[in-house]
Write a structure and sequence with these properties.
Elements: E1 23-24, E2 33-39, E3 47-52, H1 66-70, H2 89-116, H3 121-130, H4 138-147, H5 156-175, E4 183-185, E5 191-196, H6 205-234, H7 244-267, H8 283-303, H9 318-329, H10 332-348, H11 355-362, H12 367-391, H13 397-420, H14 427-430, H15 432-436, H16 438-455, H17 461-487, H18 497-502, H19 505-525, H20 536-545, H21 550-575
Antiparallel strand pairs: 1-2, 2-3, 4-5
Helix pairs in contact: 2-3, 2-6, 2-7, 2-8, 3-17, 3-21, 4-6, 4-17, 5-6, 5-8, 6-17, 7-12, 9-21, 10-17, 10-19, 10-21, 12-16, 13-16, 13-19, 16-17, 16-20, 17-21
Length: 590
């Protein structure tokens, strides 16, 4: 499956009504004040709330016309943006290019890591996470976007920088020599799985995963800048249409992922990569192909993105911005959503390390079929986004996530257990889960973006988006690290491919228990849905009425810092040959 969505997974870059007749109207206020005015629907009197925040020097932008802000319930003044005009084509192409690399890099992991290198199960699961790890740094990139403009611009210089990094690293990956495969090659290009020719190959995947992580760092820098523009554009949408831009751009991103997965599924389907074709692009050649759109986005980002230059006096100092960030995370409404993002990601995404080997050894999934079903699942994801856009913009966020999550887990458990106990062992049967995953994935994803738009203020769009997505995305490597440790205790070893070949009843029970424990964590995470606002109106009410307290900021910083250090340490140790065997990271001991 896709990078961010390993079996029994959470969704990367996704964290996670009633119509609202609320708009923001801001007046210039003296330094030291955080001024928010909310205009209620109909003929209600404008209500202004001013709250003093210590050490915060926040410049609040005066709206040109209060009537503009009232009109249609938009959250910010200004003309509604048509993202399909030629002047905005660079904005749309950002998401298509991100989709190509975001979908393409992790799509190579199944064939290259599990097929060519034959890495242990826990390393395969971690590699899938490491290749998308930079999504956990979004808050830092958001801060740079909002606070440190380059040549007078906040967005497009970072797009250029990000795509330049991505391009260079992908070229390096295409030049990096490949080790000899783990198993000996047969004359027809397949593997002789009874004869090992390069035992060290199992521990040589780390350097490739880390370079893929660095390439991902580049496109994430560009993506954060594009997301900042997206929030600015989305806040100009009238209330009844708000959410349209988010769903549209992620449809475009999904289309890019479809192209990437199709390329890997067809082009990298040789027998040495868990495929069936007699011919194949090599891993190095695929990396070179992906470098081409990354390189093309460098000039496109500079010349075809409409980024308004920052006006004199609007540039924030780091000190002022950090004060504004502190004001954000000490807000109870923000804090509660952060707690949901953090704990849902941590608890709900703890998954068994057996998934990859069950897929390859017992279900017999080949690379082409794996990518084919991934491609179909992306189309289902895109259609699910379309359904949300057309019919569920005002449906309860809590109910949407609960219903789709329960259905997914029940169907997923049926497929996994039938395969484990050899009731049905068929790659097409097993891969049905890949498609089913996309329905709750789409729901979870758009709910997260909707919440961000409701919570963001003028001028801190990048910070708000980065904060929420960082906390949510950080849950994936954190839960993967914990999952490696928990499921590394199961015996017989879930990460040893030899146990799947022996296929004893005792080992089937062990695998089944690991899946059931994964589902238990997922169902436990549903209890956290009470922390989410049920829809847009509730999100705005919380933001308007709930209090602030420094303790919320201390808890947030403490949790994020601990999770970051722990996750980075354990996951990177898994990628280093000298430490990958440690029990601490899920190995069997050195």
């Amino acid at each position: 499956t896709l990078p961010s969505w390993p079996r029994r997974h959470g969704w990367h870059g996704r964290f996670p009504g009633d119509t609202i007749a609320v708009a923001h109207s801001m007046e210039v206020e003296a330094p030291g004040k955080d001024f928010t005015s909310v205009i209620e629907k109909g003929a209600e009197q404008e209500k202004v709330q001013v709250q003093v925040i210590d050490a915060v020097d926040v410049k609040v932008i005066n709206q040109d016309s209060e009537a503009d802000c009232k009109k249609g319930g938009a959250l910010a003044s200004g003309e509604e943006i048509d993202i399909w005009t030629f002047r905005n084509i660079g904005f749309i192409l950002q998401y298509f290019a991100v989709g190509l690399i975001y979908g393409g890099l992790p799509a190579t992991v199944y064939g290259f890591f599990l097929g060519y290198l034959n890495v242990p199960g826990y390393i395969y699961a971690t590699a899938s996470v490491v290749t998308t790890l930079p999504w956990s740094f979004k808050v830092a990139f958001g801060l740079l976007n909002d606070c440190l403009p380059i040549r007078g611009y906040r967005r497009k210089p970072y797009m250029v920088l990000g795509w330049s990094i991505c391009f260079v690293v992908l070229v390096i990956l295409s030049w990096k020599p490949l080790p000899e495969p783990y198993y000996c090659l047969l004359p027809d290009g397949g593997f002789d799985e009874d004869k090992v020719c390069n035992e060290e190959a199992q521990m040589q995947g780390g350097s490739f995963a880390l370079l893929m992580c660095l390439a991902a760092l580049g496109y994430v820098i560009a993506d954060v800048a594009a997301d900042g523009l997206m929030v600015e554009f989305a806040q100009r949408e009238p209330e009844e249409k708000r959410g349209t831009i988010q769903t549209t751009i992620y449809l475009v991103r999904t289309l890019g992922m479809v192209f990437a997965v199709a390329l890997v599924g067809i082009g990298m389907n040789g027998k040495e990569y868990q495929g069936t074709f007699d011919f194949s692009l090599t891993y190095s050649q695929v990396m070179l192909i992906f470098s081409l759109p990354a390189g093309a986005m460098v000039p496109i980002s500079w010349f075809l993105v409409q980024d308004s230059p920052i006006q004199p006096g609007e540039r924030k100092s780091f000190k002022m911005y950090c004060s504004q960030a502190w004001a954000l995370i000490t807000n109870k409404a923000i804090f509660i959503v952060i707690m949901y993002d953090f704990w849902e990601a941590l608890i709900g995404r703890i998954s068994t390390t057996a998934g990859g080997l069950v897929k390859s050894q017992w279900a017999g999934v080949k690379n082409f079929q794996n990518q084919l079903f991934t491609l179909v699942s992306l189309l289902v994801f895109a259609y699910s986004l379309h359904l949300v856009k057309r019919h569920f913009l005002n449906f309860s966020w809590r109910k949407m996530l609960l219903i789709t999550g329960i259905i997914l887990n029940l169907l997923d458990a049926t497929l996994a257990l039938c395969t484990t106990y050899d009731v049905v062992r068929n790659q097409y049967f097993y891969l049905g889960e890949t498609i089913l995953d996309e329905i709750p994935a789409a729901a979870n994803f758009v709910v997260g973006t909707f919440i961000i738009v409701e919570m963001a203020d003028k001028g801190n769009e990048g910070l708000t988006y980065g904060l929420f997505t960082t906390v949510s995305n950080l849950g994936t490597p954190f839960s993967r690290a914990i999952g490696n440790q928990i499921f590394g205790l199961f015996q017989p070893n879930l990460s040893d491919s030899e146990n799947y070949k022996l296929d004893t009843l005792e080992f089937r029970h062990t695998v089944a228990r690991s899946f059931l424990l994964s589902y238990a964590f997922s169902f436990a995470s549903f209890l956290l849905l009470v922390l989410l606002p049920y829809q847009k109106q509730e999100a705005q009410r919380r933001k308007r009425e709930w209090s602030r307290h420094p303790i919320f900021g201390y808890i947030t910083c403490g949790l994020v810092l601990f999770a970051f250090i722990y996750a980075m340490t354990v996951n990177f140790m898994t990628m280093i040959p000298e430490t990958a065997c440690l029990e601490l990271v899920g190995g069997s001991g050195c």
